[in-house]
């Protein structure tokens, strides 16, 4: 019997089940795109019948980190940029837990960029939502890794001299097996994409455009948006790596020319997740490791029996 | 000098098989009934560069590398890069012979490979040999090896010759070689071993010198292992089945041993992108209900500073290992030092709450690593095992019974679902994971996936349910509770049957030597020698760095007139910690420091003590440095 009976329980869940009693109303700024992420996440979790206690939501630091306060589940509000290493270890320790990591563009593409590349490379079976508002919001409006070139802020008074980072292309190069972009202004698509990401057996990265009406006033509200999978103007196969790469490059460029392209950009359903790879080479147990600590009948190995002979 | 011990130094280039040859040799001597202790010296280079390993063997217990050595096997550096005289590094090829002469004792034996080394290149070699009454055997090991098999087997020829000259039965070596070598290379190696042995036995007067292997026996079965082995086995026996790390010398050894053994016990090892990730993974795995560890050496541990603080604030149990090497920055990557004590105690922002143990011996490394896990999981606090390149790499024999212990897979203060059903929750059903008023400050945790256990872990200050909260009342309540855990741990540690502190020497003594961590064995040998010389000295090796064992240390200092604190660093960090914790004794504690990249030899301490404490004279050598007590 599992020591974690919330996992796979399959009980009926209501969107309100994810709303905490304390602070039921999120306190992001009026008009903030982050509300859109919260709503879409609640919708997706409900649609998949995930109970709050079989989910672990890890976040970093920033406005996005407040997601943990407004979404009721097991949560780990970590430190700036470090939600991914915490999340992926939890997944390895107990693969039945539905693991979702979230953070902002500074958190995920800046300070945590190294973790982003390597978590994608390893293809952990988890969902990663990046609240991309092209700005540092919580610290009051500094230029972020995705701020457009020329963007002026208190820390870049003459405008940023840097080209913005290309999150979708970076994700593809790094090894993510599901890559999408959605926008807070597009709640239905956002929910569908989060559902797909959670169902995907591998690292699913969602670049979630979240407008910041307070600190990024000159930025667009990300409307109108175009769904590249549905629009007749775009014809590419998201399961083809090359075509996906071209579409991503075009999308990243278009954003700074005022055109918001969204949708699924890359989907690879064939690549095994990291857990599967590790199990295949005998470096991860078949049974969830965490269960073992609650199993009174498990016979724990002793170093004296297994490893001491070679020292005699 | 009469020697009742053999200290055999095998010297060559990195890549010459010094490590494997010396390991087999040490194990053979252990099996023959002797106590052994090895000391490694190697440069931070891939190939080439002068390297040596010393094996000290005696019928009596050996706790340190000893002073100098009495038998040299100089193989010649086959990977020497700068053979030209006058090049930046000088003539490297001759170094295995030339660099080792200063520490060779009078009456010592030298075997050198005349196939590679030319002693006439060394200035005054013959004069020095005569002066020191050394016995020199120039053997063409290279040709011997080449004739039988391959040149690389020069080391086996050298071992054969050593056995003939020191009177070591070949059967012990044969047995080890048979176990360690694949058949294809075993045959030629055995032949080389015998040929070299017989040749020396027949053609030389093997009794022209006094350096002979002593005879000994063990009361119980022994195992030969390093501090790194002990730390790994201690972790495994505590049920640790998750490790995350990034390679860095000398921590890599623990990481490697764990990674090689974990698959066999259904565990998981992760080599990750950097040490921030490594420590964060350990935190994540522990949070999800496993016993987890990470570790590094100084530079990598610096990166772990923030996940360490996160573990403290979220009260996530985790064990981190810190293998000190000489700093600052990249420092001397392969050399020992004890200069990360303050780094480990104080890194990470805010008021830190962590436990730090610095084991003094291979056996203590096992028991104290286990205790680190127990404390970490019982009290939900990071526990750090602080050791160094010396303890990590030196091999010594330990009774096998030390490791004959039962496993302890307990997750400590963690609730089951049944227990959670009875536990306090807030009105929305969130589990009160961080309750204010709990015994010993420990509020039991739940694990993701458990029904009735959901809560928020956050690095921000938080309410009992984990909500972010900045009110002064809650802040003080939570800070006080977390701090209370340290007091409880301190009481817990002092109530244990066996203290982590190690006393040596007569109870009643005039003087005291104090040290921490891996210098303990060397200090104890110095104490024995000083007492033999008529001085009245005892020692205390301290392992509990945090919480600090105030009562035990105060009692020790009170019981003597004066204390010399011995540590491998330049800033007397352990003495500073002692004064900070005890708030007095500044006028009673002086320091003997060594930070030249080599560990203390007992003679350094004997000489340092007699010169500075007894005779009140200046230390003249460059090996060690004396820092007087306050007011002196």
TrEMBL record, chain A:
Keywords: Oxidoreductase. One of its GO terms (molecular function) is oxidoreductase activity, acting on the aldehyde or oxo group of donors, iron-sulfur protein as acceptor. Its cofactor is [4Fe-4S] cluster. Pfam families: TPP_enzyme_C. Residues 140-166 are annotated as: Disordered. Residues 61-208 form the Thiamine pyrophosphate enzyme TPP-binding domain. It comes from the Archaea. This is Thiamine pyrophosphate-dependent enzyme.
From TrEMBL, chain B:
Residues 509-583 form the Pyruvate:ferredoxin oxidoreductase core domain. Keywords: Oxidoreductase. Residues 237-479 form the Pyruvate flavodoxin/ferredoxin oxidoreductase pyrimidine binding domain. Pfam families: PFOR_II, POR, POR_N. GO terms for biological process: organic acid metabolic process; sulfur compound biosynthetic process. GO terms for molecular function: 2-oxoglutarate synthase activity. This is 2-oxoglutarate synthase subunit KorA.
